[in-house]
Structure formats: C-alpha cells, structure tokens
Design goal:
The protein is built from 11 helices and 8 strands. By secondary structure, it is of the alpha/beta class. It is found in: Cytoplasm.
Length: 314
C-alpha cells in the first residue's frame, strides 16, 4: 500500500544554463531525511503519485524535472542535454537546497542517472533504491528498439514500425531520430506518439489501457520521445557499459543499495540487473516474479516501499 501524500511545501525553478530552467518540488516532512527522486525516460518527468513511495513523516521528498521534461523549460529541448549535464544539475539542486547528503531513488533511466550521479559524487549519497536497471548498452537498445521485444508484442510492434518506411528499418532509432526532429509538426508528433505508445504498451505484465493512453498526449509524447531518442542515438553520452565498469562500481561499493526488478520486464530485462549484481555482489537484488517494468505493479511497489522504509533511518 502506498503512502498518502500532500501537495509540496516548496516549489521552485532552478536556472542551470542560458537555455534550461528546471522545475523542482519538495514535499513530505520539512525536517525529514532528504531523498531525490530521479524520473525515467529520459524525458518522462515526475508524477505526483511517485511521492507515495516515501513515508511523508520521515522523508523530505525532492522532485526534479530533468532538462526538457515535465514542467521544466523549454519543453522537449535536446540542446545542452546530456547525462553529464543532468548529473551537474542534481548537484546544483543539492547545493541550492543546502543538503549535505541524500538518499537517491531512481527507476529505468532514473536508475542509470542514479548510478552515474553516485559514481560522480559518492560522498553525497546515503543509499540507493533502484528499479528496472538500465545502462544504455547497445544490446539493451537493440533488444527493445530493433529486435527482441518485438517478438513478444507483435501487434504493438507493428504500430511502432508504421511511421518508418521499410527501406529505413535497419536502424529504427536513427530513422525515428530524423522524424522526431522534423520541422513538420505532423511528422514529428506522429513519430512521437508511436515511439511513446510502444513503451507504454510493453511496460506492464498486464497492459493498462489508461497507461497506454498517456502516449496520445502530444506535449508529453513529444518531450518523452524526442529526449529519449536523443539520448539513445548518442548512447547515453557514455562509453559502452560505463556504469557497470568495476572501477566505477568501486566508487559506490559501500553505499547501501536495494534493487527491485520485474522478472518479466521487457523494457529493461532482468539480465541487466543480474549483470549489476555480478559486478556488485554487495547489493540486495529482488526479482519480482509477477511484474514487468512499471513501478506501479503491486509486487514492485511493495518492495520499493519496504526499501525506503528500511533506509528512512540511515
């Protein structure tokens, strides 16, 4: 059961470049232990419901809409938008809020960013709670966007293929990149909806039509698809497998970490979480037997809340 939550007690805008201004919110207890929630995508933005993972009497919950996402401006902007820009933004927000150390919580792309941030600033991270591990390796991108998940969701895959001519389907991420950056609004939005719908259609073990319907919202789909694709075309602005590199893991090895992974996660398959466990055996890895990718599936939600409850007094 998720925690009840109230409106944020602080809302602000953090100017991080000549282009980008980031929206942030602080909720829960003013005297609570700080935790930053790093949303997925890239480009997904924060959702009020994500406050429910944290006991509002114990945590000061910090939301940050990453560059171009959510309520941050300009929406869907991919200029000056890299993994390392986002890592710097997280540090800017920590300093702005005068926080010494905080817990870090992230799922999917948020798990990638959590690892990259922790490896860059290990002295600022109390604990990590991660879900649906994603590391942007070529094999992961190919599985979901080229061939692999397509064999499990053929009807959804057909809709994903529809905007791309057969002659361009040998590299679908690149083909989508051209359309998601088109100056023609109709072309761009058609591609954005198809890209976003593919992910929403595969994120849960039991498909939720309301979840899929989110992909039909043009503003959200445009930001989500453009920013995701931008990161994936550029392989996350990291070397292959960087966050799994033993030298990088050594930087964070002593940080208490709990990972929750859906057994039937098609978007970020369990093999990546298992790879993390192999290089970092000190982590606690829970594989949920009846869950896909979404944090909102009951078994996953339960374990995430148990993790934040456990870490609340660290």
């Amino acid at each position: 059961m998720v925690y009840s939550y109230s409106a944020p007690f602080e809302t602000g805008t953090l100017k991080v470049s000549d282009i980008h201004s980031l929206h942030y919110e602080v909720s829960g207890s003013k005297e609570g232990v700080p935790v930053i929630f790093l949303h997925g995508g890239p480009g997904g933005g924060c959702d009020d419901k994500d406050r429910g993972f944290f006991n509002p009497e114990k945590y000061k919950v910090i939301f940050l809409d990453q560059r171009g996402a959510g309520k941050s401006t300009p929406s869907a902007c991919i200029d000056e938008n890299t993994t390392w820009d986002l890592v710097k933004d997280i540090e800017r927000l920590r300093e702005h809020l005068k926080i010494e150390k905080w817990h870090v919580f992230g799922g999917s792309w948020g798990s990638t960013l959590s690892l990259a941030y922790a490896q860059s600033h290990p002295d600022r991270v109390k604990t990590l709670v991660l879900r649906g591990i994603f590391t942007l390796r070529k094999s992961e991108l190919r599985w979901f966007y080229q061939e692999g998940a397509s064999h499990l969701f053929p009807e959804a895959w057909e809709e994903y293929l529809a905007p791309i001519p057969k002659s361009e389907r040998s590299d679908l991420i690149l083909a989508y990149h051209a359309r998601l950056n088109s100056t023609d609004d109709e072309t761009r939005l058609k591609a954005a909806r198809a890209w976003s719908k593919w992910e929403m259609s595969t994120s849960k073990l039991y498909i939720d039509p309301a979840h899929v319907a989110a992909a039909e919202k043009d503003d959200w789909a445009n930001a989500f698809a453009r920013i995701e694709n931008h990161y994936f075309v550029n392989e996350g602005f990291m070397r292959e497998g960087q966050v799994l590199d033993p030298q990088e893991i050594d930087k964070i090895r002593k940080i208490p970490t709990i990972v929750v992974q859906g057994r039937y996660d098609v978007v970020c398959p369990a093999t990546t979480a298992y790879a993390l466990k192999k290089v970092w055996p000190e982590i606690t890895l829970h594989i949920v037997p009846d869950a896909g990718h979404s944090s909102r599936e009951s078994g996953t939600t339960k374990l995430l809340i148990e993790a934040t409850d456990k870490f609340a007094d660290y």
